[in-house]
Amino acid sequence: MKNQEVQKQIVSSSFGAKMLVVLGAGESGVGTALLGKQKGYKVFVSDRGKIGKKYKDILLNNEIEFEEFTHTERIILAADVVMKSPGIPETVPLVLKLKANGISVISEIEFAAKYTSATIVGITGSNGKTTTTMLVHRILKDAGLNVGLAGNIGVSFAQQVAEVSHENYVVELSSFQLDGIEKFSSHIAILTNITPDHLDRYEYDFEKYVASKFRITQNQKESDYLIYDADDIAINTWLKQHKIKAKLVPFSLKKELAYGAFLKGNNIIININKETIKMPISTITVKGKHNVKNTMAATMAAQLLQIRKEAIKESLANFEGVEHRLENVAKVKGVEYINDSKATNVNATFYALECMDRQTVWIVGGVDKGNDYNDLLPLVREKVKAIVCLGVDNQKIKDMFGNVVDIVVETAGAEEAVKVAHKLAEDGDAVLLSPACASFDLFENYEDRGRQFKSAVRNL
């Protein structure tokens, strides 16, 4: 349908119905379109790129107007409200024009939340949010709660609100999604950590990124909870400078806490709800210090929702981890191949290298988001025997580690990177894909990167 025809149809039918424009026809966009139509909005979906067949079929089957390969401004600027895909920056001219015209530009999370009275556990952080989200969801589901998994993971939050009446949601929230909220709130908010990431979207100003993460608590009430990492400098600094209404629930690996979760010897101790839980670290299936923290956060969220400690322990013991996060792929000729493609920033890669207990061939690189690699230098000196670069522009990596590691090789794809790593690794070594960068130079996304890596390993 031509743009003029689309505009005419929308304008003629918009009397008496508010108009919702959805920018971006991916998972969150199409889910929002479905919910918007159900709630009586006149919906128009606009994507500057090609709309995938799966999503186009949904729009056609539900008779939702859409366009692809363009944004028709006259139609979009007629909106009452605009839901913007998280991938579209706040600074693009169209978004700035919408805001200048007084049109509300929100995220899927904001739009969907007003149509559900479910209890929400919202989880954000630079790293660990996917694992923590899946842990919380697993515990609640195992305990028999009616619970949905949404946000950056699984089926669109908006689509679930439209089609399923969950009583609880566990929602993974990126800073981009939080930038688009106005009234959204979680009964329980979890802030796993804050380290530099996505600085290219925040004018290379870390403080702006920190403020974005703390939007998760801006609408919380005194009856709500904020679970947070008490060892995190950025979090502690912000909390000293700002007052929040929610009850603070800290966790720590470094200090004993009268209220919250902490590490004592080889045991996790949790003191909330007048009930103490003691769990040996050895019973946690996902390894690494960062996963001890993720476990603490998830356990406290479950306790606050009145889940029995026996049920929590059982779920934790059976949790198998997240695809593309320190995922053991295969052992080939004595070499362990590990897929950590989800490590799209330096801090995530720090955790991965910290977990390595053998000499490592490290596959790194991609789209740099303002990375500072200095924190990795001690771990690289200690554990990395060779670096395989996987990106279009690897100069920053070569400059940082060229004098630390004897072998640095550039490759142009996952298959070549795996073959080179295979030649460099010896019996007893590990090959670790932990890119510390976004994937969009050579891959569709980090999942595509991880799956290509796994396929290449299995073809060795």
Automatic annotation (TrEMBL):
Compartment(s): Cytoplasm
Record key words, sorted: ATP-binding, Cell cycle, Cell division, Cell shape, Cell wall biogenesis/degradation, Cytoplasm, Ligase, Nucleotide-binding, Peptidoglycan synthesis
Listed EC numbers: 6.3.2.9
Pfam family, one: Mur_ligase_C
UniProt GO molecular function: ATP binding; UDP-N-acetylmuramoylalanine-D-glutamate ligase activity
Annotated binding of ATP, by residue: 125-131
The reaction(s) this protein catalyses: UDP-N-acetyl-alpha-D-muramoyl-L-alanine + D-glutamate + ATP = UDP-N-acetyl-alpha-D-muramoyl-L-alanyl-D-glutamate + ADP + phosphate + H(+)
Main location: cytoplasm
Parts forming coiled coils: none
Positions of the Mur ligase central domain: 123-302
GO cellular component: cytoplasm
SUPFAM superfamilies attached to this UniProt entry: MurCD N-terminal domain, MurD-like peptide ligases, catalytic domain, MurD-like peptide ligases, peptide-binding domain
Domain of life from the UniProt record: Bacteria
Cross-referenced InterPro entries: Mur-like_cat_sf, Mur_ligase_C, Mur_ligase_C_dom_sf, Mur_ligase_cen, MurD
Cited NCBIfam families: murD
PANTHER family: UDP-N-ACETYLMURAMOYLALANINE--D-GLUTAMATE LIGASE
Family under the similarity heading: Belongs to the MurCDEF family.
Listed name of the protein: UDP-N-acetylmuramoylalanine--D-glutamate ligase
Organism in which the protein naturally occurs: Polaribacter irgensii 23-P
